[in-house]
Design a protein that fits this description.
three-stranded parallel beta sheet; 18% strand; two-stranded antiparallel sheet; alpha/beta
């Protein structure tokens, strides 16, 4: 959509609803400055330009560029949606594993703990926290050292097999 900044009933940028834009918008004006342009781009406009002499000659190029940008926006939305769906499927899969499974970030914060870990280690509140926040200092220090070594080597350091409260055999790789 190509819209002038000044419309009879408001501003062209107001055509975009809050959140994810359902269409691409290019805003033009005869009077404006960088502040106006930056504001329009931050609110989701694909482009902003000043009408000047030669405006009609450059308009097709501006709109072609905006259409290419809108195609990229749509492709990115599809990719993000597919990634979110894949993460959800992986999370459901990991949650059903009989073995404990977890994911941590580079700083050692738990990003995910599966159902087996939540049940066997009562890890319901671990996500977003580090070992030092939920374990004794000695255990946390050992876990953090093992994590650093695993990251350095890029491989599993040890496998622990134990029985849970129900007597089931569990495997823990770290």
């Amino acid at each position: 959509v190509l819209a002038d900044w000044h419309l009879p009933d408001g501003e062209g940028i107001d055509l975009l609803p809050p959140g994810e834009a359902p269409f691409g918008l290019v805003v033009m004006t005869a009077q404006g400055d960088e502040r106006l342009a930056v504001g329009a781009l931050k609110r989701g406009a694909l482009d902003f330009f000043l009408k000047s002499q030669g405006f009609f000659e450059t308009l097709p190029l501006v709109m072609e560029r905006a259409l290419r940008e809108w195609e990229r926006v749509l492709e990115l939305r599809v990719a993000r949606s597919a990634e979110a769906e894949a993460r959800e499927r992986l999370g459901r899969f990991l949650d059903e594993l009989p073995a404990v499974a977890l994911l941590k970030d580079a700083e050692g914060r738990y990003l995910f703990v599966n159902r087996a870990l939540r049940e066997d280690f009562e890890a319901r509140d671990w996500v977003g926290r580090k070992a030092s926040e939920i374990r004794s200092p000695a255990v946390a220090a050992r876990i953090e050292e093992e994590d650093r070594e695993a990251l350095r080597r890029g491989e599993v350091l040890q496998e622990v097999i134990f029985r849970d409260a129900q007597g089931r055999k569990r495997w823990y790789h770290q």
